[in-house]
Write a sequence for this structure.
């Protein structure tokens, strides 16, 4: 069964005229890594919020169509119930720290206390989440004393502990330094390997190409294309949507290095194909 | 980590007591002083508070708190000593200025009461983590939302002051004078407060979303990571407080009926 | 004469931890990128250039002025700093007066300030939005406002702290253009950034900061060929250079454009 189904989704923020989401439909299978790309203002964040139910349950406004998670319609559910199925990580690690907890360990407990978990289960889940994100050694630190990358991994741990099977990340590394973003990407990759469905909005196309099973290209509130990274980045009209191919793809496009009509999108594949190309010429 | 808290980490039996009992202690000591308005009773209460602070090994930290109200206390003594309506007996004089016994006695009572209340509060704030106090109250039925607001304020305000520093730097970088003459400071108000307000609005909205995603509005009954450490002492303390209040009422009634 | 001279600069916020541990540098008109991990001391360093912080030891000389002897306001006409988050500075209810705020503060009269602000807004491509409320615009546009508000002050030196954070491809290209224009006007542009491809495409000179010291300093293509040192600073070379390395090619190109140009016959 499809994990997430979006059907003819339309949405407009209160007091505005423009449709931020304009007739969007797509389906996501369980366990996939989906990258969402498009220029700022394309509607990427709003789409993420619609899958978690923040739109329209937190942000009101005009809403049409439906979003189904495991067959349950989110607009008719409530955010707390959806949060057990779909977790979301935002751009700024700092505003995701609750501010009411004094240690990293207690911070992860926040959501678990809210859903009324018993203490044994809570502790098991916190230990597991902190270990998975590689921040167990900071468990007694104040959350605000962590670095950006560590704080963002703490935010993910807080979500993971709720054991959702879908995690949405909205530009999770844009505020981080290269090492911090690498830490986050690695952590997310581990989650994907455990069978968690990942949806990630990201401007770093090389990363999207490396990790995604499928890429959703958005522009002006619409879905332009939803396909494999190779197919998406082999399009010749990306510039029109304010998107650029990964560096490796751009190089191969310049020399028309392709395989059955598709250009390579990752470093390894590009290298392989360039070598082959050089041998032939 | 900066946090708005006077909590002192010590290993004492006072630290172990439930926060609610420390709140009740403040209430009890105030009630007793109202019911029994004698200076002897106030002194007794103060001695008890000071002994508890000593036991908690935080007595040194109380002085700054008392110092804080020192000027007010001194002025009470002077005003009452000079002008109390019941003043008759001259106690001593400095030059031509006469201090009266009645006023001095009255002000002594006020001062001791104030110090006692301060000590009782100090016992709470110096030996209890604010988060523990709030969690204790939430367990006893305080709305988790109010609890969240109270405990997050303690951490988020220090964070806001650091944002404030960045904003100050950003505006100084554009040639804004924030120091020196009063007129400069007044002129600097809007360039500084504008971004502070906008920033906190944005941060609040983002944080609200992040909290919702973590089931903040869940209808389930909330549970707690930390166990309560309610001891026998804790439960007996409540009876002791009630007994103390009842005893003081009986004493007061006895005086009346005489 | 060099525009900025830094002699044996040390700085610490607290006694036990030194943030900058002896920096000697000279800046001429070459556009310069500063890269390095968070905590390497980059932001502290530019705050010292700007005079927001004063050295605990050593000197920072900006256009002949030792920062120790001048206030931030005194230095403002010479050196401008665009902060990371535009929301930290914007407070006026229209774009034009926001951009005029700096010029007026450093003593330009009303008409000159307006003139300068309009020019700066044209440069960043916001000339049609001068009467809009900044908070009705997107974050990318607000970033451009914050850049314009420093450009309008017409300083000899402009520093940008993380200008490309959370920006999409188009906005990044815009910011790259602005930097190149400023450079062509003879200004010294210094930028802190984490985006290695942006550095490779935009800057002539690159400094690598690591643990409070300058680990590498030189022309950008030279710096990105020093794999060992970059690794030490937890940095990766730009994508084009990574491909060159992987292909074992003799020549390393640091941008996609250079790679393509050199290999196309």
């Amino acid at each position: 069964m499809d994990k997430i189904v979006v059907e003819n989704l339309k949405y407009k923020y209160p007091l505005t005229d423009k449709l931020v989401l304009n007739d969007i439909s797509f389906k996501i299978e369980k366990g996939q890594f989906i990258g969402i790309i498009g220029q700022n203002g394309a509607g990427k964040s709003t789409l993420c919020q619609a899958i978690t139910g923040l739109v329209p349950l937190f942000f009101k406004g005009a809403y049409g169509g439906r979003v189904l998670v495991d067959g349950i319609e989110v607009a008719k559910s409530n955010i707390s119930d959806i949060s057990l199925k779909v977790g979301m990580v935002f751009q700024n690690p700092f505003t995701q720290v609750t501010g009411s907890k004094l240690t990293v360990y207690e911070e992860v407990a926040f959501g678990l206390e809210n859903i009324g978990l018993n203490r044994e289960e809570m502790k098991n889940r916190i230990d597991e989440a902190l270990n998975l994100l590689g921040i167990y050694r900071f468990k007694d630190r104040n959350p605000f004393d962590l670095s950006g990358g560590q704080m963002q991994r703490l935010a993910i741990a807080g979500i993971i502990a709720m054991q959702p099977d879908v995690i949405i990340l909205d530009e999770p590394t844009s505020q981080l330094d290269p090492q911090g973003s690498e830490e986050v990407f690695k952590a997310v990759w581990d989650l994907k390997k455990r069978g968690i469905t990942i949806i990630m909005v990201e401007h770093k196309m090389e990363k999207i190409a490396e990790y995604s099973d499928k890429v959703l290209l958005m522009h002006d509130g619409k879905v332009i294309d939803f396909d494999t990274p190779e197919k998406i980045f082999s399009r010749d009209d990306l510039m029109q949507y304010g998107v650029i191919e990964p560096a490796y793809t751009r190089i191969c496009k310049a020399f028309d290095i392709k395989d059955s009509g598709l250009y390579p999108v990752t470093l390894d594949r590009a290298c392989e194909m360039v070598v082959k190309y050089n041998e032939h010429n | 980590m900066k946090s708005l808290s006077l909590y002192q980490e010590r290993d004492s039996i006072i630290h172990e007591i439930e926060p609610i009992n420390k709140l009740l202690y403040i209430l009890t000591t105030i009630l007793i002083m109202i019911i029994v308005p004698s200076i002897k009773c106030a002194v007794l209460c103060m001695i008890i508070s000071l002994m508890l602070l000593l036991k908690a090994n935080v007595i040194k930290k109380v002085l700054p708190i008392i110092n804080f109200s020192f000027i007010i206390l001194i002025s009470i003594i002077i005003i009452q000593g000079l002008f109390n309506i019941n003043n008759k007996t001259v106690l001593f004089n400095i030059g031509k200025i006469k201090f009266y016994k009645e006023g001095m006695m009255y002000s002594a009572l006020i001062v001791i009461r104030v110090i006692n209340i301060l000590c009782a509060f100090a016992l709470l704030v110096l030996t209890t983590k604010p988060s523990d106090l709030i969690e204790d109250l939430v367990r006893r039925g305080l709305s988790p939302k109010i609890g969240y607001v109270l405990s997050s304020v303690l951490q988020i305000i220090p964070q806001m002051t650091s944002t404030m520093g960045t904003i100050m730097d950003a505006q100084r970088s554009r040639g804004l004078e924030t120091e020196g003459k009063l007129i400069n400071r007044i002129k600097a108000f809007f360039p500084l407060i504008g971004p502070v307000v906008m920033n906190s609005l944005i941060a609040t909205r983002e944080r609200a979303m992040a909290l919702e995603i973590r089931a903040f509005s869940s209808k389930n009954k909330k549970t707690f990571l930390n166990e309560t450490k309610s001891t026998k002492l804790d439960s007996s303390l409540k009876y002791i407080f009630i007994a103390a209040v009842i005893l003081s009422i009986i004493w007061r009634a006895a005086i009346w009926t005489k | 004469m060099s525009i900025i001279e830094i002699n044996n600069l040390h700085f610490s916020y607290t006694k036990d931890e030194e943030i900058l541990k002896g920096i000697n540098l000279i800046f001429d008109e070459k556009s310069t990128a500063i890269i390095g991990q968070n905590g390497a001391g980059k932001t502290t360093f530019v705050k010292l250039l700007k005079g927001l912080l004063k050295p605990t030891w050593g000197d920072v000389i900006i256009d002949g002025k030792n920062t120790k002897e001048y206030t931030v306001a005194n230095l403002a006409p010479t050196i401008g700093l665009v902060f990371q988050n535009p929301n930290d500075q914007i407070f006026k209810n229209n774009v034009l007066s926001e951009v005029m705020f700096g010029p007026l503060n450093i003593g330009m009269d009303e008409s000159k300030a307006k003139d300068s602000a309009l020019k700066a807004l044209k440069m960043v491509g916001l000339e049609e939005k001068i009467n809009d409320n900044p908070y009705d615009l997107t974050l990318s546009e607000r970033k451009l406002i914050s850049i314009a508000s420093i450009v309008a002050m017409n300083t000899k030196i402009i520093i940008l702290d993380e200008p490309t954070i959370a920006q999409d491809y188009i906005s990044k290209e815009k910011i790259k253009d602005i930097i190149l224009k400023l450079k062509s006007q003879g200004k010294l542009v210094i930028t802190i950034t984490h985006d290695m491809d942006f550095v490779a495409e935009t800057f002539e000179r690159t400094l690598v900061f690591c643990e409070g010291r300058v680990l590498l300093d030189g022309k950008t293509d030279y710096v990105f060929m020093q794999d060992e040192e970059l690794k030490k600073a937890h940095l990766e070379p730009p994508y084009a250079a990574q491909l060159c390395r992987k292909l074992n090619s003799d020549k390393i190109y640091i941008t996609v454009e250079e790679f393509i140009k050199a290999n196309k016959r």
